[in-house]
């Protein structure tokens, strides 16, 4: 699948008659909220784990030197904590452009912190997209992040802001925190 997913996403869902829909964010959508929303609540989705396995050629890297950003991989028993936003469907006209480098919208059930549930959408970059980089040792991921920068800023800022946001949400994400430790260690040595 081509890395530019705008047209794929526009064909995926018919929002006719829908006033508002929940969007689950687990990466930059937690802390970079440059879109209007009606309501926001901490939430989690089950069976998915956050991984810095997606390449960023347009935000935190360049086509020649991609950065690394998060996607979700299926992992039975895993719980991914993030932030859910109730948005008007027209917000996806903007978000599909922002998330165009490999992310497709999927339906997902989500659980709010008070135990209630809702159905909504989540952007996931699957392994068959051209920008996918895949698994690598966490120190190597940290080194790539330390060296990368793109139109949205340094890749390290993406990682550090995400790690801070996850701490605020009291989310356990050993993968993100391990990469953060490597990155901070390499910066101070
Ligand atoms: C998300 O935040 O939910 C998707 C990945 C990203 O934009 O960082």
Describe the structure.
The chain contains 6 helices and 7 strands. It is of the alpha+beta class. The protein has one domain (6-188): Roll (Hypothetical upf0131 protein ytfp). The N and C termini lie far apart (40 Å). The model has no long low-confidence stretch (mean pLDDT 95). The structure holds succinic acid.
Give the gist of this structure.
The chain is of the alpha+beta class. The chain has 6 helices and 7 strands, in the order αβαββαββαββαα.
Secondary structure category: alpha+beta
Mean pLDDT: 95
Q: How would you write the strand order of the largest sheet?
A: 1-3-2-4-5
Helix content: 25-40%
Q: Outline, from the CA principal axes?
A: globular
Major sheet: 5 strands, mixed, barrel
Q: Strand portion, in percent?
A: 35-45%
How many angstroms separate the termini? 40 Å
Q: Mind telling me the C-alpha Rg? A: 16 Å
CATH homology-level superfamily = Gamma-glutamyl cyclotransferase-like
For the record, the CATH architecture stands as Roll
Chain-wise SSE layout:
Layout: H1 6-12, E1 21-25, H2 28-31, E2 39-56, E3 67-87, H3 91-98, E4 103-112, E5 117-125, H4 138-147, E6 149-150, E7 153-154, H5 155-168, H6 174-188
Parallel strand pairs: 1-5
Antiparallel strand pairs: 1-3, 2-3, 2-4, 4-5, 6-7
Helix pairs in contact: 4-6, 5-6
The protein binds succinic acid.
